[in-house]
Specification:
The structure is a single chain. This protein has 164 residues and is α+β, with helices and mostly antiparallel strands. The protein has one domain. Helix content is 26%, strand content 24%. The protein contains four helices and eight strands. The strands form two sheets. A six-stranded antiparallel sheet has the order 2-1-5-6-4-3. A two-stranded antiparallel ribbon has the order 7-8. The longest helix has 15 residues.
């Protein structure tokens, strides 16, 4: 299995990494209930065959230009994948995690919290950063608006880019 970034030479993945990311049919493992095949390895997520990878990358670049690098979206890029001569396109993005490595809560996860726990978590959010995210979401058409695509890290909200 090889991955490459646009304009770069392909890199062959170590067999342990390839096995963690890809299933026996040479497709990205479906690790999450999502519209696309998405697998996690280390601090990164790999998504196979997104509908609009160029648009997702443009959204990421726009967010960085408007609000500063990685201020509302994690680092991401478009990658090529090749296995046994079959080529596919995908995206790779940084996983948003807490300083301890524990997954950060998502808006979906708030449903499991008590009202007091939710209020405590949400009242600590940075209003400027949340406003940036809301403005950015108004400029695009998020694919599904799923609450598990919005992640809370400390006092900030981040979104995984997923556009249609």
């Amino acid at each position: 299995m090889q991955l490459w970034l646009p304009g770069k030479q392909p890199a062959t993945l170590h067999s342990d990494v390839a096995h963690a990311l890809f299933d026996e049919t040479n497709h990205v493992r479906r690790m999450y209930l999502a519209n696309h095949r998405v697998a996690q390895w280390g601090n990164f997520h790999l998504k196979e065959s997104p509908e609009c990878p160029g648009l997702e990358y443009a959204f990421y670049c726009l967010a960085n230009l408007l609000f500063g690098e990685n201020s509302v979206t994690p680092a991401m890029g478009v990658v090529g994948m090749s296995m046994n001569g079959e080529k596919r396109i995908g995206t790779i993005s940084e996983t948003i995690a807490s300083e301890t490595g524990v997954p950060c809560p998502t808006l979906e996860g708030l449903r499991a919290l008590s009202d007091n726990e939710c209020e405590t978590l949400l009242s600590g959010l940075n209003a400027d950063q949340v406003s940036r995210l809301i403005l950015l979401m108004c400029l695009c058409n998020p694919e599904d608006g799923k609450p598990d695509s919005i992640v809370i890290q400390g006092d900030a909200l981040y979104t995984y880019v997923s556009l249609r």
